Amino acid sequence: MPGPAFILRGKFFPPKQITKTFEGKTVIVTGSNTGVGYETALKYVQLAASIVILGVRSLQKGEIAKSQIEKSTGRAGVVQVWQLDMANFESIDAFAKRVESLKRVDVAVLNAGLFNRTYKVSETGWESNLQVNTLGTALLAILLTPKLQASRTADSRAHLVVVTSTGHIEVQLKPRDKDQLLHKYNIDLGVGLYQQHVTSKLFMMWITRELAYRCLDGKGEPTVIINDACPGPCRSDVTRDFDTPLWTIAKGVGSFLALRPAENGARVLVGASTLGEDSHGQWLSADGYYRPSGQYITSDEGKILQKAMWTEVVGVVEEKIPRVKGVIASLSEQRALR
């Protein structure tokens, strides 16, 4: 896990506040009924966004979040609640198709994530961290990209922000596991709950970079700005699965000593959606600044694994949602045409 210095710096020296207006903008935030996602959506409403869509699994909880945001900001008619289950490929596809009906989308923050206490298999047959943090997020990112590209104007580009983890730096891949990594980690390797979680985040960072490359036009300029951002250790319910008495006590102590308010993490995510072309394909740390990525991002070996992961993930999501193939092909066509 990140060391004490990193955690304490984040707790006592929060990222700068975001003041840029989002007037007239349409924003999507997934996993936004609680925690960092909620605070991120709240911040966009405070910054004058015209439409803020909460992508949530529970519509009831989403409506509660909507009411809280409206009460806090005094702005009604801005927040919309859309159902999105990141553990279900068909739900993700339906959400993305609904997004296509919008006039435009200026920002999409893919915040929904999972951190399980034990090894669990989702209904899709994939380990739950991999399903939500890697496969589900990858599918949604790919399917949203054409709409984000179409929202480009002469003086602005849409943003796709993918929430990741500083813990990707600490991933330890075993040599024998480097072939068909996604499938290898779909079984209980006994690597520990933290390693499984941050590994799923590393896998998604590889996907983000591959997608960013495919969103460069013929001049090498991004058609949509795609970046990763880490909100840092914040008070949220991402560890809701850690519900035993001992874990509950440990979380309470840890929250008091080390975790910062979820609003601080939201600053990083909203900030990432204000950055220019230089942020394309980059990673922002919990302080809101670019930081060196881990070895599996920057090394030659990492770049090889990245391409292999893209192929593996795309193969899985294409099998479940066949139209993914056409979406990816369209990205290449746009690159050739521009």
Automatic annotation (TrEMBL):
<dbReference type="GO" id="GO:0016491">
    <property type="term" value="F:oxidoreductase activity"/>
</dbReference>
<dbReference type="InterPro" id="IPR036291">
    <property type="entry name" value="NAD(P)-bd_dom_sf"/>
</dbReference>
<protein>
    <submittedName>
        <fullName>Uncharacterized protein</fullName>
    </submittedName>
</protein>
<dbReference type="Pfam" id="PF00106">
    <property type="entry name" value="adh_short"/>
</dbReference>
<dbReference type="InterPro" id="IPR002347">
    <property type="entry name" value="SDR_fam"/>
</dbReference>
<keyword id="KW-0560">Oxidoreductase</keyword>
